[in-house]
């Protein structure tokens, strides 16, 4: 009996130990799911920025096509005008005018008449030469414009294909991330959705302060991949609209925002500075003060203020004005 009691006690201890360890066994998959979700959304954000960049490149290419086409139209119109002048002068020549000094000598009635005729014929000949030169230049310009338009159109087609490819990749990644979000526990989703206490500060005067006030006013607004406001944002659209509200134009995507203004060090950040994150420069936040930044994080997470260094590895910090 004592041996049986000992075995029963030992078994109970094992069961108790197993029950105690069960919560951590369940917690690990949940933590893994949250990490996977964060990784998926970070990649989706990068693909979204890639897609937006490709769209901007396509717009620029189409603008070049339009400008080259317009230049060709103008050059052709100019060539028609100069062609008309050449035709008029040519017809005058066939009708008897001879644009040379001998013609003036043979048809003049006096020395004075000869000088006047010679001067007039030289002027007409110069006009014809100038008209021919202008016609030739206009035709050359038109040909170059046509070549430029054809080249630009080819580039635009490639950019359009790039946009389509990147959108497909982005849509697939966003769909995967959204599906993963549904697998998170309710407490995890609630934690992600929490803005925490809204931050208010006394922003400095000037454009940087005005931009910061705008960004802080969006706390609680949802993040949506590729959104441009006014009720939902992605990270870079929030920065762009914030500075636009202050009368300062900055690019749409993080890759280009990483080049605006001038670089500053981590120890000299000031309100309104843009902090670009990750080696691929795919995320951006705006400095609130020496330790905090406001940003549109990712889907499932509203615009909020966070510790500057907790958002991700910093790539570069840019001071837009000042």
Overview of this structure, please?
The protein has 322 residues and is of the alpha+beta class. 64% of the residues lie in helices and 8% in strands. It has 7 helices and 6 strands. It has helices at 2-94, 101-107, 111-182, 186-193, 207-217, 235-245, 254-257, and strands at 262-263, 274-277, 283-287, 292-295, 304-307, 314-319. It has a 6-stranded antiparallel beta sheet. β4 (292-295) and β5 (304-307) form a beta hairpin. α1 (2-94) packs antiparallel against α3. It is elongated and about 85 Å long.
Q: What's this, in brief?
A:
This protein has helices spanning 2-94, 101-107, 111-182, 186-193, 207-217, 235-245, 254-257; strands at 262-263, 274-277, 283-287, 292-295, 304-307, 314-319. With 322 residues, the protein is of the alpha+beta class. A 6-stranded antiparallel beta sheet has the order 1-6-2-3-4-5.
Classification by helices and strands: alpha+beta
- Find the count of extended strands (DSSP E, 2+ residues): 6
Helix count from the secondary structure assignment: 7
Spatial ordering of strands, largest sheet? 1-6-2-3-4-5
Rounded Rg: 36 Å
Strand fraction equals 5-15%
Q: What is the CA–CA distance across the termini?
A: 86 Å
For the structure shown, list the relevant keywords:
322 residues, alpha+beta, elongated, disordered N terminus
Topology of this protein?
Elements lengths: L1 H93 L6 H7 L3 H72 L3 H8 L13 H11 L17 H11 L8 H4 L4 E2 L10 E4 L5 E5 L4 E4 L8 E4 L6 E6 L3
Antiparallel strand pairs: 1-6, 2-3, 2-6, 3-4, 4-5
């Amino acid at each position: 009996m004592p041996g049986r009691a000992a075995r029963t006690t030992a078994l109970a201890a094992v069961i108790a130990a197993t029950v105690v360890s069960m919560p951590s066994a369940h917690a690990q998959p949940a933590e893994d799911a949250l990490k996977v979700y964060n990784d998926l959304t970070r990649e989706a954000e990068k693909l979204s920025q890639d897609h937006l960049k490709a769209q901007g490149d396509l717009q620029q290419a189409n603008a070049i096509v339009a400008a080259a086409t317009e230049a060709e139209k103008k050059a052709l119109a100019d060539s028609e005008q100069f062609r008309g002048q050449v035709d008029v002068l040519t017809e005058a020549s066939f009708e008897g005018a001879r644009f040379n000094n001998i013609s003036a000598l043979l048809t003049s009635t006096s020395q004075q008449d000869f000088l006047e005729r010679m001067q007039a014929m030289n002027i007409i000949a110069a006009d014809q030469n100038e008209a021919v030169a202008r016609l030739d230049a206009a035709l050359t310009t038109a040909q170059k414009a046509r070549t430029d338009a054809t080249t630009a159109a080819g580039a635009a087609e490639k950019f359009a294909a790039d946009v389509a490819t990147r959108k497909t990749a982005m849509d697939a990644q966003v769909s995967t991330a959204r599906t993963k979000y549904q697998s998170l526990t309710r407490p995890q989703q609630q934690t992600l959705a929490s803005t925490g206490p809204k931050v208010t500060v006394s922003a400095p005067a000037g454009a940087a302060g005005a931009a910061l006030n705008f960004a802080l006013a969006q706390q609680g607004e949802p993040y949506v991949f590729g959104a441009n406001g006014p009720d939902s944002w992605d990270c870079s659209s929030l920065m762009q609209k914030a500075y636009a509200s202050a009368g300062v134009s900055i690019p749409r995507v993080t890759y280009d925002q990483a080049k605006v203004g001038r670089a500053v060090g981590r120890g000299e950040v000031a309100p309104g500075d843009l902090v670009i994150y990750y080696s691929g420069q795919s995320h951006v936040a705006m400095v609130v003060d020496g330790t905090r930044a406001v940003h549109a994080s990712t889907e499932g997470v509203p615009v909020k203020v966070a510790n500057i260094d907790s958002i991700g590895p910093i790539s570069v910090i840019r001071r837009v004005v000042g």
